[in-house]
Design goal:
The complex is a heterodimer of chains A (about 300) and B (about 350). Chain A has about 300 residues and is mostly helical. Chain A is about 70% helix and about 5% strand. Chain A has one domain. In chain A, a hairpin with a 2-residue loop joins strand 1 and strand 2 (about 135). Chain B is globular, with a radius of gyration of 21 Å. Chain B has helices spanning about 1-5, 10-30, 35-60, 70-85, 95-115, 115-120, 125-145, 145-150, 180-205, 205-215, 220-225, 230-255, 265-280, 285-300, 320-340, 340-350, and strands at about 155, 160, 165, 170-175, 175-180, 255-260. The chains are: A mainly alpha (about 300), B mainly alpha (about 350).
Chain lengths: ~300, ~350
């Protein structure tokens, strides 16, 4: 039972990190209707900035720099690439983000080489024991940070004028523009916020028990895609639920790996995708996604 | 299409001459080129077959697929399983190799068909992410189903033999030129690519092609006009995975060994890059893009000493593989922003000033 509780808590913590990434993904989709395949590389960029700077300026400033860096990269992608596209086809823009992803990932992985970079986090490998359950400090920090950030984000989305502008743009871009919402600024903001959230997620994807920031980190970040899709691409609630679901499943599959050896090793990495496919079979629009309705 | 009707006869005739000359050059190349160039050409041919498949799906029907690498893997490994004789301790059925190749393509098609509950219902980027699952499931199976795939080390690919001719490295003198596997496979690749291209062109120009474009341009309108949207989407997905399967078989034959690492997410992205760079929705675009993306890294490797900024792998500079990824990543972005229609589309537009049906 205690192992189950441990696995569940670890899964929730991992899931909250995925939810952070998926949230950024959903924010971009809602604001601009573009599916951002470059999201994993934004995450890598944030993590890389933190990893490079933490020796010189300390962990917290480096983390802030990482968040700012990833937000800047996101904004730059929006400003330099997305905004230049004059056509109306959003699936073509999705392919552009694939091109951007190839560029960014190549550059970052080239800089990293085969190194495993640490981000210099203050938690190390300390473990908290609550009776029979032991939980790494990093996992608790991840859960708390993600919960705080997500709450702050949802409140801002609901009550600030920035959030209202963004929701208006998502509802109907043209009407919002006529009401004085600056669409360019909204989408720039969405990309920057998504980058910042991804940079925080990068920290928690690379701390203990994972070895550090390396090439494979972008593969871990990719798991937020199934999270966003299974929750429903246009739903912030969906991103949260999807993230948690993916995290818990992955954690369970990894935790009970020894009982599942007939399915092969490394099942945990596969679990998010299997959950997504199973969900899509039943609900093609995801759990919380709006069913596509169209008037002809 | 109608453009052929309005074009003056002379233009049509001169184009036929150009094509015939191109065909002769392609047929003669194995007599003159060394193995490196032939292999580069073979990779380009295999990539072109796969790119035609994904262009039918993504370019013509608007269904984004990031799972193309999976179907390439299915083709490559299915061929090995059917054709191998089981001598190396791995499962092998020992079928005639040509039959194995046909069956491998069919198996890839079946794999695509099994995904039809999802490929029929989802569209665009949703499907793109859903198909991402296939790549990871495929890698998991490849690493774990040791009996079938040989695990992380991969397995050897039995050489193709057809009508008593074996496409292996035993040298065969043709007009005083020694023919190894690359020279022989060159012709097999040419035949397969031509057949695949003609078939795809037939599909695109006929009723199914119209239906596919209608689905891409306006799904609901297509449905109202009587196009069974889900069935077409699923069918194109199957067809595209069969093309990928064929490309996988050819790649396996060229490589002579299949390893799971090759069939990762990067490969899927490469195929998407090919069709965007070449031109979405056309056969010639797929071929042009495939040549660009698959020959580029090999060119850069070959001439890395002579090129500025590029250096051999492991020396600290930009390795050729990375340099080519920069180039085609940038090419994807630039082509979409500045050359909508891709390389081929732009070339065509320059020739034909007004093109009907291009507005979307």
């Amino acid at each position: 039972m205690s192992t189950f509780a441990e696995i569940l808590l670890n899964g929730l913590s991992l899931g909250s990190v995925y939810a952070l990434i998926a949230l950024g993904f959903v924010v971009i989709f809602r604001a601009t209707e573009v599916v951002n395949f470059a999201h994993a590389s934004l995450l890598l960029a944030g993590g890389y900035v933190t990893a490079v700077l933490h020796d010189d300026i300390g962990f917290w400033p480096a983390l802030l720099a990482g968040i700012a860096g990833a937000a800047l990269v996101g904004a730059a992608v929006e400003f330099l690439v997305m905004r230049r596209y004059r056509g109306g086809d959003h699936s073509v823009l999705a392919i552009v983000t694939i091109g951007v992803d190839i560029l960014l990932t190549t550059e970052l992985t080239r800089r990293m080489g085969t190194d495993v970079l640490t981000l210099g986090d203050p938690w190390g490998d300390a473990v908290l024991r609550l009776g029979p359950i032991s939980l790494a400090h990093t996992r608790i920090a991840a859960l708390v940070a993600a919960a705080l950030l997500i709450t702050a984000f949802l409140l801002a989305f609901r009550y600030t004028s920035w959030g209202i502008a963004m929701r208006a743009a998502a509802e109907s871009a043209e009407t919002a523009a006529l009401m004085g919402v600056r669409l360019g600024r909204v989408s720039l903001g969405a990309w920057a916020v998504a980058g910042g959230l991804a940079a925080v997620a990068a920290l928690f994807l690379t701390v203990f028990p994972t070895p550090g920031l390396e090439r494979a980190t972008s593969l871990a970040a990719l798991k937020a895609f199934p999270a966003a899709i299974l929750g429903g691409l246009d739903s912030t609630t969906g991103a949260l639920v999807g993230g948690l679901l993916v995290g818990v499943t992955e954690s369970l599959a990894t935790g009970y790996q020894s009982d599942l050896t007939f399915l092969g090793r490394g099942l945990g990495d596969l679990a998010p995708y299997l959950v997504m496919v199973a969900t899509l079979l039943v609900r093609p629009a995801g759990l919380f996604g709006t069913k596509e309705l169209a008037r002809v | 299409m109608s453009e052929a009707l309005v074009k003056p006869l002379r233009a049509v005739r001169s184009r036929t001459y150009v094509r015939a000359a191109g065909g002769v050059v392609l047929l003669a190349l194995p007599f003159y080129l060394d193995r490196f160039w032939l292999q580069a050409g073979l990779f380009a041919m295999a990539a072109a077959i796969g790119a035609i498949g994904i262009n039918l799906l993504t370019g013509a029907t608007g269904q984004l697929s990031m799972g193309h690498a999976f179907f390439l893997a299915v083709g490559a490994y299915a061929y090995c399983v059917f054709a191998a004789d089981g001598g190396d301790g791995l499962t092998g059925l020992g079928l005639p190799t040509w039959l194995a190749a046909v069956l491998a393509v069919l198996v890839a098609g079946v794999a695509g068909g099994l995904f039809s509950p999802i490929s029929g219902r989802l569209s665009g980027a949703y499907l793109g992410i859903a198909t991402l699952a296939l790549v990871f499931i495929g890698q998991h199976v490849m690493f774990n189903a040791h009996e079938l795939t040989g695990g992380a080390n991969g397995r050897d690919v039995p050489p193709l033999s057809l009508f008593g001719l074996t496409f292996d490295d035993r040298e065969l003198l043709v007009a005083a030129v020694p023919f190894g596997s690359a020279e022989k496979l060159w012709y097999a690749g040419l035949v397969l690519l031509t057949a695949g291209a003609l078939f795809a062109r037939g599909v695109l120009r006929g009723r199914p092609g119209r239906a596919m474009n209608a689905i891409r341009d306006h799904r609901i309108a297509a449905g109202v006009l009587g196009v069974p949207v889900a069935r077409h989407r699923a069918a194109v997905f199957v067809l595209s995975s069969m093309y990928a399967g064929l490309a996988g078989v050819l790649l396996a034959l060229v490589f002579q060994r299949t390893v799971p690492d090759y069939f990762g997410i990067t490969l899927s992205l490469e195929y998407l890059a090919m069709i965007v760079i070449g031109g979405l929705g056309s056969v010639s675009g797929a071929v042009a893009g495939a040549v660009f993306v698959s020959v580029l890294p090999q060119l850069l490797t070959r001439y890395s000493d002579a090129l500025p900024l590029v250096s051999a792998p492991g020396t600290g500079g930009i390795a050729p593989g990375e340099a080519s990824r920069y180039l085609y990543g940038a090419a994807v972005v630039l082509v979409v922003l500045f050359l909508p229609g891709g390389l081929v589309g732009t070339a065509v537009r320059r020739r034909v000033t007004t093109q009907p049906g291009e507005e979307r």
